[in-house]
Design a protein that fits this description.
Layout (H helix, E strand, L loop, with lengths): L1 E10 H4 L19 H13 L23 E3 L2 H15 L6 H4 L1 H16 L4 E6 L4 E10 L14
Antiparallel strand pairs: 1-2, 1-4, 3-4
């Protein structure tokens, strides 16, 4: 098992464009369906894979281009260290003192490392100076996990 790290920083208004953060439905609209639905399906099918926005489901980062991977680690401790570095880097820009609290950030990293050790994914979001949003994600990839339908982008 290994872990991929993802980071996105941008305007909150862009982050709120949820249609671009959802993958297209596995089945297209039926032939002869409403033209606006067919057009919207085509747009989402074309835009989702290449769009840099964080997907609504953390695992769907694996459907994004490999250029969006910010790092890959075999050890959960190393992946959690990357997360700690990013949180430390952006903490001065967090909106509240409570979000910047060192104990809170340590607890987030400790929890993330534990989750990664058993193969879970991690997704964190923080408001920065308005109207900016920070999204951080760590996604586990395991060749032995047949229940996860998404393939590793680095294979």
């Amino acid at each position: 098992m290994h872990h991929h790290g993802y980071l996105w920083v941008g305007p909150k208004s862009r982050f709120d464009q949820e249609a671009l953060r959802r993958p297209p439905h596995p089945e297209p609209p039926p032939a002869g369906g409403r033209p606006e639905l067919v057009q919207r399906y085509r747009e989402v099918a074309a835009e989702f894979p290449s769009c840099d926005l964080p997907p609504l489901e953390t695992r769907h980062w694996l459907r994004k281009p490999t250029v969006q991977v910010r790092g890959t680690w075999d050890d959960a401790r190393d992946a959690a260290a990357w997360l700690r570095e990013r949180l430390t880097e952006y903490a001065p820009r967090f909106l509240s003192d409570a979000q910047r609290d060192e104990r809170r950030l340590c607890a987030l990293v400790t929890s993330a490392e534990a989750r990664l050790r058993w193969g879970g994914d991690v997704s964190l979001g923080h408001y920065l100076e308005r109207p900016t949003f920070l999204s951080l994600a760590l996604v586990a990839c395991s060749p032995k996990d047949g229940t996860r339908a998404l393939l590793c982008p680095m294979r």
